[in-house]
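Question (not urgent): is this output format expected?
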Amino acid sequence: MQFKVVNIGCKVNRVEVDAASAQLIGQGACMTHDADADIVIVNTCTVTAEADKKTRKAVRAALRNNPSAQLLVTGCAAVMNPEWFEELDARVHVVAKPEIATKAWELLETHNGTLPPGGPGDDNTLAFKEHDVALRTGMGFRTRVGIKVQDGCNNACTYCIVHVARGESWSVPFEQVVAEARAHALAGVRELVLTGINLGAYDDGGRTLADLLKALLEACPEARFRIGSVEPLDVSDELIALMAVSDGRICRHLHLPLQSGSSRVLAEMARPYDAAYFLALVKKLREAMPTISLSTDIIVGFPGETDEDFAETLSVARASAFSKIHVFRYSRREGTPAAERSDQVVAEVVAKRSRELQELGLELGRVDAQRRFGSEELVLVERVGQGTTESYHPVRWVSAAPAVGELARVRLEELGRDGAFVV
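Got this back:
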């Protein structure tokens, strides 16, 4: 069986579909980018109205570009509106992510009349696994491997529908996470990224994200760990202390979603902190780890956002000295409280604010990179001649580079025009 993946949305989405892909490969299937794929897996997103549009466009394109393939549509948009996808074409099948591999083989048998060697239940599947974990390594997978440890969200931000699509927060069992990380570390993966919809809410019988990281550091001495996006209120003193003493084995980089620098707007978003709390957290992190790199998400044009509110966002961004800002133009998502508001910000104003914040983000990124001149960081080589520092800055080798997958110690001294460190 040949299968192709079309992934839309967050890092958790990518990790989930990578896990399904690894399972299929372990059962004898082959990942392809060709139009003659037997199965096309479309992993959908519904976080914004724009994501919804992109998802529907992707499904239509997959039907058009793969005329003989069966489509497995999964993910948040499929959960929210399965009927729309199923009514689009008889080749579309909405399926939950844990069932992707089973459904793919079932469809292949139904439409091709035979189940080839390597399908579910065949003994040779074990040859593709280590410690009963389907490894996400090799061609088609990223060098940096993500491990999903948490799903769902108990928050209800007024612009967001994900808590409806994903449900309440739950955590992957502690021992399962450790076993999966250990298997990948033994297979040669040198950076593992912990991911979740609300990662900082991890709680398995009272064992927290900090407890999990302690166990992972001990179980995987060959690897370093990167923490995905963590909500400000979930950054505990225990987590900060552990990062500070890990000597880079937990990357001194955090992605802290700010969303707005205006406390008034944060309250209307139902975000459970204000600007002062966020700035105090940034100060605490920098005192514990002076070299830490902080990236963020910011929404511009939330309903009712004034020029003064936006000015406060710019001010908090500068004070936080972010290394990267992911700028999102507010997108009216049907079914959320914010979408019902009558004080939507006009598109031209949203676009202007977006450009201004993006320019600030580029400026702050350069400043953060420049302050690292003369220092050394471990760089994960992700592609030939390209890598990523502990602080999440890109690196480009102009001469012979270490092998892909290695962690190489690099002295940071020069920035190229593309914003990458040149080595």
